[in-house]
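Lab notebook page, bench 4
Experiment: in silico fold of construct C2
Operator: M.H.
Input chain length: 235 residues
Purpose: comparison with the prior construct
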Amino acid sequence: MNDVWMVGPAMIPVNTVIIFLSFIVGFMYLRFISSYKNKTDASLRDITSNAMILSAVVFYLGSIPLNISTFIRDPIPMISYPSGHRELILGLTIGFIYLVVQHIKKGIKLQDSLLASFIVIIVTDFFYAFSVNQSGISITSDFPLSAHPISLYTMGLSLFALFILRKSSGMMDEPSFIFSAWFLGKWIISLFQPSSAFLSIYLPEHIYLFMTVSLALVFIIHLTIQKKQVISWKR
């Protein structure tokens, strides 16, 4: 989606507006619908919002530190340089570090802040997919659709993840499992796209697969530790 809106001399990409509005919907879901909607979770919601805003700022300006020598030589073009998957990873890393710092300083459970961030991302992904109506590679067999409905796949995956989180309190205690399942779903969906992308940001398919395996290992390790603790307690 390359359409732009002209606001005076400024050109605002329509895709950027949709992403912004999608995040607004994600934050509203966290505030009014999610399991973190209570007044007692106000600090958690504030920290989650701050972390995601920080990640967004680092993402949009991430090309500067990642290309610092070029920025020093010619700063103006670098400011408008389009961000990609490297900047996204940098932004998410900085956001994660912020959550860890807040966990240490204010005692906010890192598990809860990560899960709250994940909920915002899922809802954002759903609303963005609903708004842009993405299609994937062509379907050659006898099928009513000529191409894979990527937006429909994405919306289905998001609804499934939100349903599981709403109905299963156990998943709230073991978020790495649903994280891993969501990334696996995103990887499968990416197989039906000409080029894998998240919110219009190009992502190599192996990133989804890497996150799937990593989070699955975290889940297995956590379960193993819990099992050993239970056995030790019974003895």
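Observations: The chain has a mean pLDDT of 84. Residues 139 and 146 are 5 Å apart (CA to CA).
Next step: discuss at group meeting.
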